[in-house]
Every structure is written in C-alpha cells, then in structure tokens.
Specification:
Strand order of the largest sheet: 1-2
Largest sheet: 2 strands, antiparallel
Number of strands: 2
Distance between the termini: 49 Å
Radius of gyration: 22 Å
Strand content: under 5%
Mean pLDDT: 90
Helix content: 40-55%
Low-confidence stretches: none
Oligomer: single chain
Length: 231
C-alpha cells in the first residue's frame, strides 16, 4: 500500500498495519546471498525476541519486561515507540531492583532520600554487593574478544615489519582473551549512565532514536543476574 499518512500523527485505520517509513530505511547484509537487502519485520522481531528473562524472575517483573519488548516490536509501525520502550524497560529494571532488594531496603542497608530508593542507589548497592558483575554482560565479553583480536593483529603487523616480511598469517588459536583485554569496569559505567537516561525520560524530552535495543538487553542481563536461575 502506497504511503499516504503522516507518521507523526494518529494513524488512519486503513494504515494501521503499515510500517513507519523510517523503519524500512535500513539495510541488512545477507551472508547467504552476499548482498545487502532492505530490513524486514522478521529481522526487527528477531533482534528483540532473543532477549528473555529466565524462569527464576518473578512473573510480575516478566510481564513488565514483555511490555517493553512489545513496545520495541511495535516501533516497527510507530517509530516513536522506541523511546517509550526504553523508558518502560528502565522502569522495569527499577521495579526488579526494588523487589530483589526489599529486605536490604527495609533494614537500612541502602541509603536513599525520599519515601523509596530510586534507581541509582539500588544499582549502586547491587554493584557493591556483586549482585551484578561484568561477566554477566554480552557487550563486556565481546569487548575482550575485540581487544584480543586487535592486539594480535598489531603484534603480527609489528613482526611483519621487523622481519621485513611481505605477508604473514595466523589462526584463531592465536586470539586468546587475557585479563588485560577484559580490564573494563562496565558495571560502574552502568551505575552512572542508566539513572541519567531514566531521569531524562522521566522529565520529558524531544529526543528520537532507534538505539533502544542495547538498553533493553542490558536491563534483561541485570535482571537475570539479580535472581537465581532455576537448576
């Protein structure tokens, strides 16, 4: 159906199932065909479908997280839902932290102002108590591999230059992640970053982007670490 609606206004009933034109402006590389193709709804669904909470997470929190996932999914049709999805995911994270740390809150172990602890003191306490760790985040694990691969490439290029070689080869076994490669405290960055994003959403704003998936993923990884996974 040819587009004849304003994506910034209420969608006419006849175009409810039409994608937001901004959603289809991206391409994806298809390794099977070796060519780039326009992104499809199935691709969009696949990206968020893999982010799930394990069975040890309370059902009420799972329901809120599923709402955030669905908001992301339906952003395919309403582009501005990306921001709403991120806001709801962070609200879900705060709900999970309050639930998981309710005993610590009532016993005075968590210092905060107001009637209830906000996201920052809850995150700070969870990080201090090692309830969330760097190892629990995919981006942190990948960072180590990227750093390791870069280090090996630099070493081989230096060797090639010193020995005046015209070419040099190496295999995947040379790429081994070391402690130095993983020397990045991702958790401490989250403790500062996530509350700022949460507050920005809470106080209103005009920003618009589709870089929401990483926030939803981080939220899922934090919540999955907070609760014990069933054996």
């Amino acid at each position: 159906m040819e587009q004849s609606f304003d994506p910034e206004k209420l969608r006419p009933a006849a175009y409810v199932c039409e994608p937001d034109p901004r959603s289809t402006s991206y391409v994806r590389f298809d390794p099977t065909t070796g060519v780039y193709r326009r992104i499809e709804l199935a691709d969009h669904h696949e990206m968020v479908a893999r982010l799930i909470l394990h069975e040890g997470v309370p059902e009420d929190i799972v329901h809120q997280f599923e709402t955030a996932r669905n908001l992301y999914l339906y952003a395919w049709f309403i582009y501005r839902f990306y921001i709403v999805a991120e806001r709801h995911a962070l609200a879900c994270l705060e709900l999970a932290l309050r639930d998981r740390l309710k005993a610590e809150t009532s016993s005075g172990k968590i210092h905060y102002r107001g009637k209830h602890p906000t996201l920052r003191p809850l995150l700070e306490y969870a990080a201090q108590q090692k309830l969330i760790k760097n190892e629990g985040f995919e981006i942190w694990r990948n960072r180590g591999e990227i750093n390791s691969r870069t280090r090996v490439e630099i070493e081989k290029l230096r060797e090639m230059e010193e020995k005046k070689l015209e070419e040099i080869t190496w295999d995947e076994s040379d790429i081994q992640v070391t402690a130095e490669d993983l020397n990045w405290d991702f958790v401490s960055g989250l403790v500062d970053y996530l509350p700022r994003v949460r507050n920005r959403h809470a106080h209103g704003g005009t920003e618009l982007h589709n870089l929401t998936l990483s926030s939803i993923q981080v939220v899922s990884e934090i919540i999955n670490q907070l609760y014990q996974r069933p054996e």
